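Table S2 (continued). Query chain:
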Amino acid sequence: MRRADLQAIREKLLAYALGSRYRLTTDDERQLWARYIHLSAHWTPSNGLLLNKPAPNRRLAYNNKPQGGYPQ
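Corresponding output:
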């Protein structure tokens, strides 16, 4: 995808975010999905459930915390 193509998509999405109509074409969406949009297999819903989502007292969650003793 050329930079100019991506810039045109950016302008359409920015206008949509500011209240305009959704104007992405099917080709625009196809290009975004092919190269820029990623769905992690760990968070893809299965029958409406996020099976690997951390839950209290059930699954481990590792927050991004600085290691003790290191400067912030």
